[in-house]
Amino acid sequence: MLAMQYQITLPADYDMGIIRERVATRGFALDQYPGLGLKAYLIREAGVNGSAVNQYAPFYLWNAPLAAGTFLWGGDGFGNIVRDFGRPVAQTWVGAGFARGPAGDEAPTVAVRSIIHLTDDADPQPLVASRVDALPALVGQPGLHSVAVAVDPRTWQLVEFSLWAVAPDAEWIEAAADSRDTETYEVLHLSSPGLARLARR
Questions:
Q1: What ranges do the domains of the chain cover?
Q2: InterPro entries in the record, alphabetically (predicted)?
Q3: Whole-structure pTM over 0.85, yes or no?
């Protein structure tokens, strides 16, 4: 599994209805994309849920890294992003764990992304193992669609990405934000052609 996200920060006065319309009319294009586990079409709006920015920030989980490459430089998908917004940095993480929650068959409406920064002298093994071992407890959370844990071995950041059919309560988000960089997003659409394969990893 390979996790990927690019974040396109837009002007403060940008009409986010443009992004909503873009996803409504084009989001289905990846609903059957080979090698894709899931793509969550995410936004943040300035002044909503504590966001200071307008942002379009899709998050991907790939079953096949080669498919991620094909998307980035072999077709129109990412090419349309480059054409319309310029070329964003596509951050990637190597997958460590994935699980589906009790709302795994429902449409997610909220996503939470938490990043833990490892110190320079930290051994990544115990931290990664602890987050993966915590997945069985996390999947019992009501409203949870799915959750993934992945690591960027270049910057040594661990990302925990969760999708929710019903927004988690404020206490859960506060706990997730403890000692981490945590962002909450609205999910406009979910393409999940390879979700079942992700769930077996």
A1: 2-199
A2: DUF4865
A3: yes
